[in-house]
Amino acid sequence: MKLYLLSDNVDTLTGMRLAGVDGIVAHTADEVLSAMKHVLEDSSIGILLVTKKLYLEFSEKLLEILAEHSTPLIVQIPDRHGAEGSGNAIAAYIKEATGIQI
Asked: What CATH number does residue 59 fall under?
């Protein structure tokens, strides 16, 4: 099972790539839909990480698309603008949501 990041900024994507997580930056509805098509076509992606800003902007569309599929699990994560804590915050969110330690 792979993690995949849907981010609204390059900095978060770069950091996650350094941790071995692939992903894409999206800003428009068309870019989000294209990314979701890719995610749904790749059955090895089990967890979709979505930055908070992007999730808040497109949550209705994301949930509508995923309502028809059992995977991936969406985990909303803080991005570089988040004040939720240290660099371990993302790993803590994933562990809390899935029970998987990364």
From this structure: 3.40.50.10580
